[in-house]
Amino acid sequence: MLRFFRVYLSAMIVLLVCATTGLASTTKTQRTIQEGVGWDRFIVGAKMNSLIDALGLPDKSSSGRWMRWDNVGVNCLLDDKNQAVELRFEKRFESVTGSGVQFGMSADEVRKIYGDPGTMEWHDGGMKIIWPSRGIQIWFHDNIVYQIVIFSPKK
After folding, report:
1. Can you say how many angstroms the Cα of residue 94 is from the centroid of all Cα atoms in its chain?
2. Backbone dihedral region for residue 85 (phi beyond 0: left; psi -120 to 50: alpha; all else: beta)
3. CA 149, CA 102: separation in Å to the nearest integer?
């Protein structure tokens, strides 16, 4: 019994030390979105079956070629061959691009990272900036990144 108590006490001390020093962090690992590619197995060109293997069945709100996984914070558009041609990442996805763009950054901060865009458009109080050669489009609302869209880079 004394041996059990010592093991229990040792384990509690280790947990206490980890908790107070931050070694037992419960924060999520930030995911990296690669421009022109995607994230993990959620990539441009992936077939619908591969997307289902990676993310599970899409939400019932999906329709036609528009597939949604709202619990993950992603959705995509499929072409007529059931391949992903456009991937969309929402803020709840908690991600960063390979170049360091994060949700909440201003348009000026993003332009410092990617340079001058190929296109800038304004829609219903929002703005989208596209870098075709990088395969990325970013939507801003109130000048803050709120959606990241990935597609095949254009030459």
Report:
1. 6
2. alpha
3. 13
Q: At CA 134, angle to CA 128 and CA 140, rounded to 5?
A: 20
Task: Provide the residue count of the chain.
Answer: 155
Q: Is 135 helix (H, G, I), strand (E, B) or coil?
A: coil
Secondary-structure breakdown of the chain: helix, strand, coil percentages, each rounded to the nearest 5: 25, 35, 40
Return the number of other C-beta atoms located less than 10 Å from residue 103's C-beta.
19
User: CA 82, 85, 91, 97 torsion: positive or negative?
Assistant: positive
Per-residue pLDDT of the chain in tens (155 residues, 90 and over written 9): 544 444 343 434 433 433 433 444 344 567 999 999 999 999 999 999 999 999 999 999 999 999 999 999 999 999 999 999 999 999 999 999 999 999 999 999 999 999 999 999 998 889 999 999 999 999 999 999 999 999 999 98
User: Two tokens at 19?
Assistant: 């908790």
Q: List, in order, residues 6 or more apart from 37 with CB less than 8 Å away.
A: 43, 44, 135, 150
Is the Cβ–Cβ distance between 45 and 152 less than 8 Å?
Answer: yes
C-alpha to C-alpha distance for 62 and 71, rounded to whole angstroms: 13
State both tokens at 9: 């006490």
